[in-house]
Please model this.
Amino acid sequence: MIREMLSQLDEIDAMLGVTKGEERRTLMERREELLIRCANLTAEQKVFLARHPRRPKIDAYIHELFTDFFEQKGDRQSREDPSVLGGIALLHGEPVTIIGHRKGTDLNENVAYNFGMPGAEGYRKAQRLMRQAEKFGRPVITFIDTPGAYPGMEAEEHGVGEAIAQCLALMSRLTVPTIAVVTGEGGSGGALALGVADRVLMLENAYYAVLTPEGFASILWKDASRRGEACEVMKLTAQDLHAYGVIDELITEPIGGAQRKPQAVFSALDEAIARHLAELKTMDIQTLRQTRYERFRQIGQ
Amino acid sequence: MALEDYGASFVMCPACSRRTTPQNWRAHLQVCPSCGAHQPISAPERLASVLDAGSFVELGEHIEGSNPLDFPGYDEKLSDLRRKTGLQDAVITGLGMIDGVKVVIGVMDSRFMMGSMGTAVGERVTLAVEYARHSGLPLVLFCASGGARMQEGIFSLMQMAKTSAAIADFSADGGLYISVLTHPTTGGMIASFASLGDITIAEPGALIGFAGPRVIEQTIGQRLPEGFQRSEFQQDHGFVDQIVQRGRMRETLSQLLRLHGYGVMHG
Model:
């Protein structure tokens, strides 16, 4: 249903430029109606938007928010895992380390990047880059967009669970400011591995949860098709998580999702990251670390 | 328990099908006297098997789980399990002695919702780690958990961050953490504090891994080889220091404590 509403909106937007008078007025009214419906989405519809193929991906955020990006590949142990993208760039002229899940923007890229599902090497690359950020005093900005770590044989053989655990432990003690942004899917431990940050921001239509809704329904009810029900009971929307204090700030998206007007999201996110970073930079390292510890310590206390 | 009772007098081992008395099973700490298969052991039995008699003092017993998402039916499930198991939740934490050496210990119990980690488990483990850190005591955690507690959703996920952060601080202060992986240690458990031990021990034959075998088989479309993700596999792949039989756990822990200078007479 959300799919149809969005394609009708796209059609109307395209036609508005070439219509006049009464016909245009009818279109505008129809557009208004659709927008109102898109402004009141269910959790399942938001998950649809979180996974929208045209939703901005990490490549776009890097391109729009940063300059001089230098990609750093490899975990220095065995492999380059392209489902985690990382490197150094300038944010308003200041060097930062960027790390995030990479899903790719078309089917070929999706396949090449394993749909953003990292193995152990991706998380070990993330650790390498975080340690280096600490060494050079660079803040770390992470972008979270994964259904979860990859459930495959090699991932298990190489210890993807251990690699995630080490990310959690490492991030919790980093001596530089850290900001995590949940941009799309925040699925399970594979998402959290990049999420133990001083500030956790989340796009309005992203989701963040203990598992994908399908995985959740399959574990709890042995029926992955009960996804819609799972979306409702899981409380996985940005609004829910903001109310729970799990995330610090919700980044508003254009009605109908970030893919409709990406520039609006880029500038809102740019402003939010700069503001939080400025705040974090006033804190000394001890306070920064202690506050980060307490931030996660109080969840479920 | 996975064991099948035959009348009241015999128990059959699910691994080798040989029968013996429940008393004999208990005397062998739920390890089959015939084939050595390790079956699940309750947290109280486990504590009794590794600690000096009468030395255990529970910490964090006041911490009860809640239903943070108002998940339908979860409250009833919790009270039902509390009645059946006598446990408040899936972990017991406290202080005890191993051969006269004081330790902070946490033991998970897979009878309680497959040992899954909700806020009660996360909070109790974190408090135990913080206690060990502030008192300078060594920490021993027996993991037995399928991972996250689905009914607690994001709150469950966040316990991974919380417990791992506590371990990281404890470790940075020089604390000794012995992690014992027992059946099962999977999902969010292996992706958090279970993997962060200075010493990692596994019981024989335990399922240890991140993704569940069924999920992997569905993803790759083929059957997993025999022994995949078991303790021996994890040892072969470099994630476990040693596999230790349950019957030798107590002396192994005692040895490790002495090797780190605890319980050694000075001067």
Summary: The helical segments of chain B are 22-27, 43-50, 74-85, 119-135, 153-172, 213-220, 231-236, 249-259. Chain B touches chain A through 54 residues (CB under 8 Å).
